[in-house]
Design goal:
By secondary structure, the protein is α+β, with helices and mostly antiparallel strands. The chain has two helices and two strands. The chain is 23% helix and 19% strand.
């Protein structure tokens, strides 16, 4: 299993894809806190699946990427 990082919005939801590098996640979380949650011109599908971010303090938390089950073992 591989570990990574995700940025968590003030409401506890995740609106961006995960990061492999802690420094990148930490930097983007700070940008989202200081400026606005939506960093890119077009929102990602994961952001579109959530209500709008309330804006405010964004944090970083560790996650584990679990590989998909082999065919027939799901």
């Amino acid at each position: 299993m591989t570990s990574g990082w995700e940025i968590v919005c003030p409401d506890g939801r995740v609106r961006s894809y995960p990061y492999h590098n802690f420094g990148d996640a930490e930097f983007d979380a700070q940008l989202r806190t200081e400026e606005r949650c939506q960093l890119w011109p077009e929102p990602s599908p994961i952001a579109l699946s959530q209500p709008p971010c309330p804006e405010g303090e964004h944090t970083v938390r560790p996650i584990v990427f679990t590989p998909p089950a082999p065919p027939g073992e799901a």
